[in-house]
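In response to the reviewer comment on reproducibility (Comment 2.3), we provide here a single inverse folding case reported in full, input and output, so that an independent group could reproduce the run without further information from us. The structure tokens appear first.
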């Protein structure tokens, strides 16, 4: 299968690329910064912005003999640092506007499958977040990402797309000083509202990437949202 990727240079996105290629699939990645992702067999890289429909169209046609079966989006808003209090760098509604552009271009091309990485706390899962997690997300600049993901969640439901929203718990990144996370670890799904979430919940980027690919390749959870954790 062939996939369109947005967010492929992020930590989760890079794991998605590796997982797809390891399974023998091909992909075209639209990246905002030239040279940050190296093309390789099976991977075509196009420089452009998800805020530009023409750039997205260029990515779709970058491999003329291949039409994407689906898009996998792992975009996120950017802050100046990983601190939850760091100022927001991404423009307002970056995620919502990017996803709207992708949906429009895909629909015009006759591609209706889209898998989007979201976050626990969006939509009906907010009510089931532990109070401490709500406080952290609501009182820090993480709230801007949450609001943007919320717009994506609302808008995508009004489209003709066969969408899936994967609401990840707190992302766990590999620490080079420690033993790497198990890249084959399965995620636990908690449904759309995430009933049963704990303040200690997390999910490794490698396992959530593996789940995103599984959902896209096997056509699972169409028109559904799901909270995931390890």
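Designed residues, in position order:
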């Amino acid at each position: 299968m062939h996939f369109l990727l947005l967010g492929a240079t992020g930590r989760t996105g890079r794991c998605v690329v590796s997982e797809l290629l390891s399974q023998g699939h091909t992909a075209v990645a639209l990246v905002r910064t030239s040279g940050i992702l190296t093309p390789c067999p099976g991977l075509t890289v196009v420089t452009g912005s998800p805020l530009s429909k023409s750039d997205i169209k260029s990515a779709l046609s970058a491999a003329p003999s291949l039409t994407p079966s689906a898009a996998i989006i792992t975009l996120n808003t950017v802050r100046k640092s990983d601190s939850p209090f760091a100022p927001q760098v991404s423009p307002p509604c970056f995620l919502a506007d990017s996803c709207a552009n992708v949906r429009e271009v895909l629909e015009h091309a006759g591609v209706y499958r889209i898998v989007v990485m979201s976050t626990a706390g969006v939509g009906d899962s907010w009510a089931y977040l532990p109070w401490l997690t709500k406080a952290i997300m609501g009182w820090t600049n993480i709230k801007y990402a949450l609001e943007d993901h919320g717009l994506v969640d609302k808008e995508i439901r009004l489209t003709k797309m066969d969408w899936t929203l994967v609401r990840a718990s707190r992302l766990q990144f590999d620490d080079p000083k420690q033993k790497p996370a198990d890249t084959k670890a399965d995620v636990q799904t908690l449904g759309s509202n995430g009933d049963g979430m704990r303040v200690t919940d997390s999910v490794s980027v490698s396992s959530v990437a593996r789940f995103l690919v599984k959902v896209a390749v096997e056509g699972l959870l169409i028109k559904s949202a799901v909270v995931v954790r390890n």
